[in-house]
């Protein structure tokens, strides 16, 4: 476990797990949303492929994402381990809603100095809407990738519930 992807749907806890595993294994942690969203107005990094390619050239890293479509294959080809948070909507949606309410109320700065807003809740791009609408497709994509012969060498651990993740993390 030197080059790790932590995957799952929006709200699964990818960043939290990646941070914790990174600390335990002394791996450099990179948050995909922070790499992708680099400025106000949700501006994106035009050099994302170059940035991610450079980060994953290194021998040791952990990234919390299935990967933005532009870098998805690159990440999966360079990883040696996939940790899949495969939780149901009953787990995901309360987490997303709590996080978004907290971020909206506290005006917490996230990714490139952006903030979640009350008006943003009406957008299909809002994390709550995104988590709900992308849930099934994202799970299918991860499932497909874990069965893809190109990625057969990856050590994949699938966590069906937060309790199993917590137990695994305690053993790391």
What is the fold named in CATH at topology level? Rossmann fold
The radius of gyration computed from the alpha-carbon positions, rounded to a whole number of angstroms, is 16 Å
Low confidence ranges: none
| Spatial order of strands in the largest sheet | 2-5-1-6-7
Report the average pLDDT across residues.
94
Helix and strand topology:
Elements: E1 3-8, H1 14-25, E2 29-30, H2 32-36, E3 37-39, E4 43-44, H3 48-57, E5 61-63, H4 72-78, E6 81-85, H5 89-106, H6 127-147, E7 155-159, H7 162-171
Parallel strand pairs: 1-5, 1-6, 2-5, 6-7
Antiparallel strand pairs: 3-4
Helix pairs in contact: 5-6
Structural notes for this entry:
The chain is α/β, with parallel strands linked by helices and 172 residues long. It has a single domain, classed as Rossmann fold (3-Layer(aba) Sandwich). 48% of the residues lie in helices and 15% in strands. The chain has 7 helices and 7 strands. The chain has helices spanning 14-25, 32-36, 48-57, 72-78, 89-106, 127-147, 162-171, and strands spanning 3-8, 29-30, 37-39, 43-44, 61-63, 81-85, 155-159. The strands form 2 sheets. The chain has a 5-stranded parallel beta sheet with strand order 2-5-1-6-7, with helices on both faces. The protein has a two-stranded antiparallel sheet with strand order 3-4. Helix 5 packs across helix 6. It is globular and about 45 Å long.
């Amino acid at each position: 476990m030197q080059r790790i992807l932590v995957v799952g749907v929006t709200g699964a806890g990818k960043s939290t797990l990646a941070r914790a595993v990174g600390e335990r294994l002394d791996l450099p942690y990179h948050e995909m949303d922070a790499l992708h969203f680099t400025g106000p107005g949700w501006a994106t990094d035009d050099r994302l492929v170059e940035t991610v390619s450079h980060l994953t050239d290194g021998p040791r890293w952990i990234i919390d994402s299935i990967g933005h479509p532009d870098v998805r294959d690159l990440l999966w080809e360079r990883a040696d381990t996939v940790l899949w948070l495969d939780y149901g909507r009953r787990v995901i949606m309360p987490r997303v809603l709590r996080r978004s309410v907290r971020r909206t109320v506290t005006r917490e700065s996230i990714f490139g100095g952006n903030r979640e807003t009350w008006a943003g809740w009406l957008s299909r791009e809002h994390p709550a809407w995104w988590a709900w609408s992308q849930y099934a497709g994202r799970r299918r994509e991860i499932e497909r990738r874990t069965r893809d012969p190109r990625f057969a060498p990856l050590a994949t651990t699938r966590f069906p519930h937060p309790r199993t993740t917590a137990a695994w993390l305690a053993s790391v």
